[in-house]
Each structure stands twice: as C-alpha cells, then as structure tokens.
C-alpha cells in the first residue's frame, strides 16, 4: 500500500492540466518516441519478426509512462511515475492460480514461441447479453473442455426491464448475473471454473457486492477497468479493496487507434506497453488485458491493430514478468466464416508473441446482444494450440493468408446470427450447436488448419 499512498498523494498535489492536453501530450510523445527508437511499421506485416524493435518498443513504453505520467480524472492532475519504480517492478511476479476445486489451474508464464498454449477464457467478456440467454451462453463456454474460465457479459435487462446505469436495479442485476454464471459452471459439471468480471456494473458498489466466496472469490479475477494512461478515484478504490482482501484482479484497457491519443500503429504499440506497465506499477493487478480496436471498424482484428498488439506482446513477454491477456472484439457476428477467420488471425499472433491468456471472442464488436458461444472459444483454443509449432515468420505468412479472406469486409461485416439461432436449446441440460453451425465450424477449421506448415491436417 506504500506506493499506492505515494501515487494518491501525487494525484492530489501533481501538475494540473486538462484531459485534452494530456491526450495531446500522449499522442505527441508516443510519435516522437517511435522516431527516437526507430520503431517503424512496414504497412504489410501482421506478426513482427524484429526482436530488437520489440525491445526498443519496451524502452519507449517505459519512457512514455515516466515522462507523461497518468492522468487522474477525479482531480485533473498528473500522477508522476518514477522510473525507478517501473524498473523495480519488471522482474517481480507471483504465481497466478485461478479457479477452485478441481478446476483450479496455475496460469503459465509464457514467452515468445513457447510450446505451452495460452489459457483460454471463454464467454462474452463485456459484450451485451440478453437476460433470457444469459445462462445458456455461459453454459456453452463451460461445456468446452479447452475453456479454463468464463469472462462474463453485460446483462441488459432485469425481469424484462432495461437496466438504468448507476441505479439500485443495477445491483440486483449484477447479483443475478454472477449467480447465473456460477450456476452455469455447476450445470456444466465444472463447478469451481474461474469467473472473470463482472461486466454488468457501472457502480463501484455493484462490483464489490459480488466479491465473495460464493460468487467472485479471491481466485476469480475481478475487473478493474482503466482508460488510456488515465485513472480515477473509483478505479484506485477498487484496487485498494482487492489488494486488502487478497483478490486477484484484472486491469482492462481498450485503446482506440484513431482516437485522441493514438495516430499510428507505432504509437499504439508504445502506448500498449506503457499501459501494461501502468497496470503493474500503479494498479498492482494480477493480469493486464488489452483490447485495442480500430476507430473505423471497431474491431481488434484489423491489420494495424494486430501488428501493434503483437509488437507490444513481444516487447512485454521478452522484458518483464507479468501476466497479459487480450480481448477479441470481432467485427462479424457469430456463425459466420469471417468471425472464425478474425479469431484465427489474432490467436496465431498472440500465441507466438507470448500472450498468456486469450479472452472471448465476442462478435458484432460486443454491441449486439448474444454474439458469443462456446464453439467460438473452442476454435480459439484449438488454433492457439496449433500455433505453438509456428515460427514468427510462419505465423506472419499464415495470418496474412487468413486476413485476405476478410479484409474487404471489416467495415461492412456479416451480421451472423444470435446465440439462440446457433444452438438448439431444449433445456440447460440439453444444449448443443445446430448442424449448420457445426458444419461451418468444421469447414473453416479444415480450411485454416490445412494452411498450417508441416504435415497436412
């Protein structure tokens, strides 16, 4: 708590400035550092192969965090981060165990080209979910053996009523959502499966309401969301609460390429590294999750996003001990070939570049209800297992082949079908994908795995 007090004091006494000025400084400084450290995107690659550039990106991320600091929106002041604090944090890591009982796992600390695949966390991971399909969507993920945890979605109704943010009704809906998630693990025969979230709350009290042994225990990483190199009192309060109670928690950030802070793939990669360092030094979270999206498509599967995210992952996994995860915000809806291709392209890059945990995926950018399923998470896990045999060069070529299949659809993706049109639902105990969905899954799997180098699949 000693460092937390120091940073809280800095949030009160630090340099005052507007949020707009902070955004501009992050933008300008990240672009300057890209030039200083000779970080350059060739416009064609998906998986970087230049490890010296990855190390330079890490150095640039340290310099960006140290020189620009973290903006506290509650006080409109800048929290200055000492470079010494950053450097001292790099090699400090505690083993991460998530889940309970027979579903408890130790998350492996991965590095580039590791032979162990990433941990797969299924579920809607913050995407919109209808009340009527909430338990079924979580159950479909729990039924997949490759899935090692569930990241909850945002329930949009309670007893048929739309939930007004920051209202008492929200608290009731958060309780219902957390209980349904836990029930889904029991029905699926995987009681104790790790839960990540919750994603429905907008109130700090709603987040903390479900932090209990019954629902989100200390081994169920709880969500603490932060903006681009920014924080506020609510976020810091949640961090203090989880630290004091010995909870694992996951800090999530979704930087927007083309937004006020980010104007180039190189700048995005540097900011992504700086935000990872922010999560460890300031938030002290167990896991940092990044999910950069493109301002035009709203997806995480665009070429520039994948290159920058993969470069950041290489930089972090080579230079610090920390658990990192990635959100998959796909443009297409589920039950489409494009949705599978978006997932495959990202999973290959994340796997070879050393990401520890893959989250999702969610379709329709998470904004349309019920575009998540266990089939999509299973596919993500299978692709990541296959990708452990690839070199960086092989991964880059393979992602390029896959990307060519959906590149021209990113700004006008297929809508797909909601969950209840992709699964045959008779009851919680009689739930399975439709034959159409299974046939599409088999077709795309055969096509993509057939492109992997080596023996034919």
From TrEMBL:
Signal peptide: none annotated. Pathway: One-carbon metabolism; methanogenesis from methylamine. Belongs to the monomethylamine methyltransferase family. The keyword Iron does not apply. One of its GO terms (biological process) is methylation. It comes from Methanolobus halotolerans. SUPFAM superfamilies: Monomethylamine methyltransferase MtmB. It comes from the Archaea. InterPro entries: MtmB_MeTrfase, MtmB_sf. Its EC number is 2.1.1.248. GO terms for molecular function: monomethylamine methyltransferase activity. Keywords: Methyltransferase, Pyrrolysine, Transferase. Gene3D superfamilies: Monomethylamine methyltransferase MtmB. This is [methylamine--corrinoid protein] Co-methyltransferase. It catalyses: Co(I)-[methylamine-specific corrinoid protein] + methylamine + H(+) = methyl-Co(III)-[methylamine-specific corrinoid protein] + NH4(+). Pfam families: MtmB (PF05369).
């Amino acid at each position: 708590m000693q460092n937390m007090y120091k940073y809280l004091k800095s949030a009160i006494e630090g340099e005052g400035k507007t949020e707009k000025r902070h955004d501009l400084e992050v933008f300008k400084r990240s672009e300057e550092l890209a030039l200083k450290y000779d970080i350059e995107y060739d416009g064609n690659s998906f998986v970087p192969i230049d490890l010296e550039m990855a190390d330079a990106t890490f150095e640039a991320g340290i310099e960006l965090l140290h020189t620009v600091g973290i903006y506290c929106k509650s006080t409109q002041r800048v929290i200055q981060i000492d470079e010494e604090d950053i450097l001292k944090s790099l090699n400090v890591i505690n083993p991460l165990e998530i889940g309970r009982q027979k579903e408890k796992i130790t998350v492996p600390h991965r590095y580039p080209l590791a032979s162990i695949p990433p941990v797969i966390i299924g579920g809607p991971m913050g995407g919109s979910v209808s009340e009527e399909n909430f338990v079924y969507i979580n159950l479909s993920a729990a039924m997949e053996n490759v899935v090692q945890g569930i990241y909850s979605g945002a329930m949009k109704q309670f007893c048929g009523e739309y939930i007004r943010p920051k209202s008492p009704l929200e608290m009731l809906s958060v309780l219902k959502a957390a209980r349904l998630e836990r029930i889904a693990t029991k029905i699926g025969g995987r009681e104790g499966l790790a839960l990540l979230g919750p994603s429905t709350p907008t109130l700090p009290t709603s987040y903390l309401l479900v932090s209990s042994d019954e629902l989100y225990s200390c081994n169920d990483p709880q969500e603490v969301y932060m903006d681009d190199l920014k924080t506020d009192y609510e976020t810091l309060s949640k961090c203090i609460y989880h630290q004091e109670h010995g909870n694992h928690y996951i800090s999530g950030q979704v930087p927007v390429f083309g937004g006020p802070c980010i104007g180039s793939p190189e700048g995005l990669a540097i900011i992504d590294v700086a935000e990872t360092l922010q999560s460890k030094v300031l938030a002290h979270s167990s896991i940092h999750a990044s999910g950069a999206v493109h301002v035009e498509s709203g997806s995480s599967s665009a070429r520039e996003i994948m290159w920058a995210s993969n470069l950041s992952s290489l930089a972090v996994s080579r230079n610090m001990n920390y658990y990192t995860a990635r959100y998959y915000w796909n443009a297409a809806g589920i039950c489409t070939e494009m949705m599978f291709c978006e997932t495959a392209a990202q999973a290959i890059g994340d796997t070879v570049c050393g990401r520890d945990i893959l989250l999702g995926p969610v379709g329709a950018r998470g904004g349309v209800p019920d575009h998540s399923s266990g089939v999509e998470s299973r596919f993500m896990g299978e692709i990541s297992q296959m990708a452990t045999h690839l070199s960086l060069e092989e991964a880059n070529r393979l992602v390029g082949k896959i990307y060519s299949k959906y590149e021209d659809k990113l700004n006008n993706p297929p809508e797909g079908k909601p969950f209840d049109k992709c699964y045959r639902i008779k009851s919680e105990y009689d739930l399975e994908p439709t034959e159409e969905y299974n046939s599409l899954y088999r077709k795309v799997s055969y096509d993509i795995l057939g492109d992997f180098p080596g023996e034919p699949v």
